[in-house]
Amino acid sequence: MPELPEVETIVRDIRPALTGRRIVSARLEHDDVLRDVSRRGLLAGLRGRRVKRVFRRAKHAVIETDTRRLVIQPGMTGSLLVLDRAPTRRERDYAVLLARLDDDRLLLFHDVRRFGTLLWLDARGWEAYSSAIGPEPLDAGFTPAALFAILQRSRAAVKKVLMDQGALAGVGNIYAQEALFAAGIDPSKPAEQVARPAASKLHRQLRRILAAAIASEGTTVRDYRTGTGKPGSFQFELLVYEREGEPCVRCGTALTGTHAIDARITVFCHHCQR
Ligand SMILES: [Zn+2]
Predict the structure, then answer these.
(1) Per DSSP, what are the bridge partners of residue 108?
(2) Which position among 15, 59, 225, 243 bears the catalytic label?
(3) What is the reported pTM?
(4) 82 bridge partner residues
(5) pLDDT at site 250
(6) Each residue's pLDDT tens digit, 186-213
(7) DSSP labels, 87-145
(8) Is 160 among the catalytic positions?
(9) Ligand 1 centroid from CA 271, angstroms
(10) Which one is catalytic: 2, 74, 137, 187?
(11) Is the pLDDT of residue 1 over 90?
């Protein structure tokens, strides 16, 4: 699933073409992505709306209009584009939502396997949605002490806590593994046992890695594309993700893969990460 850097990249790419535009018409090809809104409610709601702001919250792109907010979670195979041409055959085949703008461009959300979701939230719905998500790790107000406090609240594996959207926004399987490697912390260590200096190091490394991944326009290991349809390039800078058995870049020990933390494989160096 696209994480914070990927969704941030998409949002930055589509923002200039969307901000200030009016949506003249919208078409929905599949209902199964809708959450708490009907097809008719969404399409009637979108028609005539002006886009005020485009931003990211956690792993979701948010298109704020003069009435409600359209929240798009792209999912593993989803992408968001603004086209100044007709969609290709493939784009049409997998289109979920198409919205025609008043300058004749087309906002396209397409999703091959439709793991993505769409929400259409009023002010109250937005408040409920956003307040259920933890702080943004790149916000200026997110301090080392704030991360330490989050870790102190849980006995679960530190990797799980980093990925828990209610605790912290936007971090998933890729960046949790990379940040824990950079900070020298065993991903299975109970969060509450991460000492204050280690939590500070994790805070610094997590922010550094997320910022570097945004600068590289995200990580493309399979389906993810930017808001202009290109792959990202942070996959060339990953040091542990999907590298089980390869030598650790720091000490040369073969990296270990474990399924003991969550349903997915977690790769770490048992020598460097304690
Ligand atoms: Zn190592």
Answers:
(1) 81, 98
(2) 59
(3) 0.96
(4) 107
(5) 98
(6) 999 999 999 999 999 999 999 999 999 9
(7) PPHHHHHTEEEEEEETTS-EEEEEESS---EEEEE-HHHHHHHHHTS---TTSTT--HH
(8) no
(9) 5
(10) 2
(11) no
